[in-house]
Amino acid sequence: MKACLLVYFVVLVSASLYAQLADFRHVNFYRADSVADACFGASVTDLPALSDKLTQSLTGDEEKFRAIYKWVCNNIEFDYELFRINREKRDKFDAEDKLQAWNKKFTSVVFRHLIEDKKTVCTGYAWLVQQLAQHAGITCMIVDGYGRNATVNIRKSGKANHSWNAVLLNKKWYLCDPTWASGAYDADREMFIKKYDDSYFLSDPNVFIRNHYPINTRWTLLENEHKHSEATASGEVPTLHEFLNGPLIYASAYRNNVTQLYPETFDIEVSRNERVNFRFTSDQVMNEIALSISYQGKTESVDAKFVKNDSLYEFNHSFPEKGRHIVHVKLNNSYAFTYTVTVK
Q1: Which range of residues forms the domain containing residue 309?
Q2: Are 32 and 58 contacting, i.e. CB atoms less than 8 angstroms apart?
Q3: What is the CATH number for 326?
Q4: What is the pTM of this model?
Q5: Based on the domain organization, do 107 and 158 belong to the same domain?
Q6: Which of 85, 199, 260, 307 is deepest in the core (most CB within 10 A)?
């Protein structure tokens, strides 16, 4: 999980201005990606010059921002050691004044590593995207909040631990996460593996909210951000409790545009042989849906017999053995979301 500092920005936005990558289906980002590739290895000591290199040959703001975003993702490395130090220090502080003092001290370390080594944590990623975009005349914000994966922000009260970006393109706000798009840290090999993932570029807010919860809920970019109701209801913001207790999702859920999801909770309790009904909506075609079920040290793969009705996919599964089952749902052979099923 990417640890972050909290740099708080407040901007009033209108719900009618929210959008997603589908707005740019007509845009070919090949030119922007080529510019980003041509600038590979460029220095970050002169950000205005770097921003010019990345954007001057491009026209629309969406192309310019794409070149900036892609360059940052492919040229900046996640600093796991820096992340570890920050996490351990922050966990020790109970008093707000001590935490703020540490954050101030740590910020200088983050930016020194970014400029000197091109290594950083999510605060640095989000800051660099923002700075390069602003030099190109593009309005871009840093959004702070709760990032969620298999090891962090599961149940309990949660910790604000992540930062990402909101960008204004053609008078509409969009969300992206350059940290998660850049690759992942391999704990076994103790190294950062660079692998660009386009899933987190201008993502659908209905999907983004499932593992990104902003401190200021305006930055969910969902229409009914003041109406706390069912977490899976499209266009409505879950409460923080619902967020922390919802199903885990992965990049495949983004790629397949999984919006509404049921069951709504990560933890499910059933009786032996009781059927669990799984449902989700997606505008993508699923050729295969499978369950990977881990139970008592063994993993079983089961093809799900699903029914499709317009954009709604539905299937059932029963669990004959008592105990705790970890259920991964795979869409088109890629992990999309996870539940725990306790059979009593």
Answers
A1: 261-343
A2: yes
A3: 2.60.40.10
A4: 0.87
A5: yes
A6: 199
H or E element: which one contains 313?
strand 312-318
Q: Which of 246, 122, 242, 258 is nearest to 180 (CA)?
A: 122
In 3D, which of 51, 28, 8, 1 has the Cα closest to residue 218? 8
ω before 238 within 30° of 0 (cis)?
no
End-to-end Cα, the chain, rounded Å:
32
219 and 184 belong to one structural domain: yes
Whether 255 maps to a domain, the answer reads no
Tell which of 245, 278, 294 closes a domain: 245
Say if residue 333's pLDDT is above 80.
yes
Q: 102 and 90 in contact (C-beta within 8 Å)?
A: yes
Give whole-number Cα distances, 292 to 72, 179, 255, 334, in Å.
Answer: 34, 28, 19, 11
Whether 192 and 304 map to the same domain: the answer is no
Nearest to 341 by CA among 326, 328, 329: 326
Phi and psi at residue 127, to the nearest 5°: -65, -45
- Distances from the Cα of 8 to the Cαs of 5, 140, 307, in angstroms? 9, 13, 45
- Amino acid identity of residue 137, one-letter, is G
- CATH assignment of the domain containing 108: 3.10.620
Contact 113, 86 (CB under 8 A): no
What token pair was written down for 94?
Answer: 């109970």
Cα 332 vs. chain centroid, distance in angstroms? 20
Cα 60 from Cα 91, distance rounded (Å): 44
DSSP 23-87: GGTT--THHHHHHHHHTTT--SS-HHHHHHHHHTT--SHHHHHHHHHHHHHHH-EE-HHHHHHHH
